[in-house]
Design goal:
Blueprint lengths: L2 E5 L5 E5 L3 H12 L3 E5 L5 H8 L4 E3 L13 E4 L4 H14 L4 E4 L8 E3 L1 E4 L3 E6 L5 H15 L2 E2 L5 E2 L6 E2 L9 E5 L5 E6 L4 H12 L3 E6 L5 H5 L3 E4 L2 H4 L11 E3 L8 E2 L2 E5 L2 E7 L5 H15 L4 H18 L3 H12 L40 H6 L3 H12 L1
Parallel strand pairs: 2-3, 2-5, 3-4, 5-6, 14-15, 14-16, 16-17
Antiparallel strand pairs: 1-13, 1-18, 7-13, 8-9, 8-10, 9-20, 11-12, 19-20
């Protein structure tokens, strides 16, 4: 499980290595969250060129160099070259001790994972499956966009009104930047004077994510432990202020004054590895966020989504070996969830259609719109414990 945080990127330096559509989406998310963005790539999309021309981003039109990551708060590698992405991770995180580093589609080389995000400019909702099922995350995002009539970050930066994609300016909306931290075996420090409910919740969440948690008293802070910490949580911001330079990670949360930290922990909806986080940009949105949180808890917690995501996660190692490109892997999971080419008229057998004229089956609803759906599909098989049937289908589509 990943640890959900909403980062404060206001005026913080962010680096994106790569100039394609994936890099473009990263840049858009950083800009609306107030990040000061630099892009390094010999090639770039139309939108990135537009943003560079109007001074919104700094675009360096060349290949990445090892010294490029120095001085950044957050670094993302989004090129199509594995060796370049690996080099970015090694120099940024291992050599330069930058805590927040993401290599697209390579979880072992990430300290954080990006999230599917929707926003109406006031409320920010992010969805993560802890890297186990991006396809499920995308479907939940699209469902929430429709249900709540909110926008996806995928649509920002372009004008679609006249049937054409035309780049448009992107403004700093002062929104938080949602990410999910990979805390397995990482050192985290909690500084407090008493064990409040909020502190206990943070500790439990850290431990659930596999972190090594050390607790310190506000009156006797051990600076050596802070130097090795990846994340620090303090109940009092006045404790953090004098020792910021000793926090090697430079990722810290102040419970008494959220704006004083590098991030906040949002309201959470958790069903195993499905994590939906919700936060508001202003006090005005807090009541809306509270109502939405209660609604999503009822819809998603203990409804089988975590179990379904875990099943898909068990398939990823074999899928990685079978398919060489990220697109092929994504297509496999989309087809699997939708039972593409599968005859579902019989509840006892699975047969794969070889007729090229066979129409695509309806998109699986994942019980998002029909909570009582009992269709013969992968989602319901997993929920009903029919794992042999689900496994048989997954194997058939691998061949």
């Amino acid at each position: 499980m990943f640890y959900p945080v909403h980062l404060n990127l206001q005026n913080r330096k962010c680096l994106v290595v790569g100039g394609g559509t994936v890099a473009e989406r990263k840049v858009v998310a950083m800009l609306i969250s107030g990040g000061v963005v630099t892009v390094i790539s010999p090639d770039s999309t139309e939108l990135l060129d537009f943003l560079a021309d109007n001074g919104t981003i700094r675009l360096i039109r060349r290949e990445y160099r090892s010294r490029d990551t120095v001085g950044y708060f957050l670094v993302c590698a989004a090129t199509n070259t594995t060796s370049i992405n690996t080099s970015v991770y090694q120099t940024a995180h291992i050599k330069n001790r930058i805590a927040l580093v993401n290599v697209v589609d390579v979880i072992p080389q990430c300290t954080f994972a990006a999230a599917s995000v929707v926003t109406d400019g006031e409320i920010v909702i992010s969805i993560s499956t802890s890297g186990k099922s991006p396809a499920t995350s995308r479907r939940i995002r699209e469902y929430l966009e429709e249900k709540l009539n909110v926008a996806s970050l995928y649509t920002l930066g372009y004008d679609y009104e006249h049937g054409q994609e035309k780049p448009v300016p992107i403004e700093n909306q002062r929104l938080p930047y949602p990410v999910y931290l990979l805390l397995q075996n990482r050192n985290c420090v909690v500084i407090n004077s008493e064990n409040t409910t909020e502190i206990e919740q943070r500790i439990q969440l850290l431990q659930r994510c596999g972190a090594h948690v050390k607790c310190q008293n506000t009156n006797s802070v051990n600076l050596e432990e802070l130097e090795d910490a990846f994340l620090v949580i303090s109940e009092d911001h006045t404790t953090i202020d004098p020792i910021k330079k000793n926090i090697g990670s430079y990722i810290y949360e102040c419970l008494d004054r959220p704006a004083a930290g590098t991030h906040i922990t949002p309201k959470l909806v958790i069903d195993d590895n499905l994590i939906i986080s919700i936060s508001a940009r202003t006090p005005k949105g807090l009541k809306t966020a509270e109502r939405l949180h209660k609604s999503l808890v009822h819809q998603f917690e203990n409804r089988g989504y975590g179990k379904f995501i875990d099943f898909l996660g068990t398939l990823r190692p074999k899928v990685l070996k079978t398919f060489s490109t990220s697109k092929e892997r994504a297509d496999y999971f989309e087809n699997l969830i939708d039972c593409e080419g599968i005859d579902r008229s019989s509840t006892n057998t699975i047969s794969v259609s070889v007729d090229n004229q066979t129409d695509k089956t309806d998109t699986c609803c994942l019980r998002l719109k029909q909570t009582d759906c009992n269709a013969e599909c992968l989602f319901n098989w997993v929920l009903q414990g029919k794992l042999n049937k689900a496994s048989e289908l997954s194997e058939r589509l691998l061949t």
